[in-house]
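Revision sheet: structure tokens.
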Amino acid sequence: MKDIKVMKSLKPQFNKNLIYTRLGYRRNTTRLNQYEQTNIDYLIDLTENTLNIVAAYRIINILRIDPPYIVLEDQTCLKGKKLSKLLTGCDQALIMFATGGQKIIDLIVNLQKENRLSDAVVVDAAASEITDSALDIVMAHVAHNIRPLGQILTDMRFSPGYGDFDLSQQAELFRILDAEKFGVSLNEAFMLTPEKSVFAVAGIGRMKTGGIND
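Predicted:
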């Protein structure tokens, strides 16, 4: 599949505080009683155990960067000022995605049907954060593999919908990774199913330039 690498059954480490942030809680200002704290922690554990995270990635050469446009070797044209700045000095782009699977969506729907709406919100937030954290595993894996080649990976990654990297660009990343083969679909509004799926782009280069860092 066009040199697409697959990573299955991922169990990423994640920052629980970021889940609380997604829920709108603020450190030192939001106070939870013991029951609320215990219930949220239980739901986060339930989410982690329900997710079946699969990730895939492809490394593709960059032909040229003419901000805000980035042209890849297969003539795919990505657009974004911040993305083009991130990829400045890079020879290649790392295109990646992760999906949490259908079971987590079924869990959220069932909680909603049981009128456990607050619980559904917690699971939704936890699933988003944990699935996104799976891309950290992908980046660490790639960074480890390319370092002996004298290459380095950008610290940051950008996902469609961030800044001027328009959500419509999701269609290009979807095609590059043949994401439908992993049970993911994309609708006319560029939304993904299962919902807990995420695409991102990072850069690979040799020089400490632009977004590249040792």
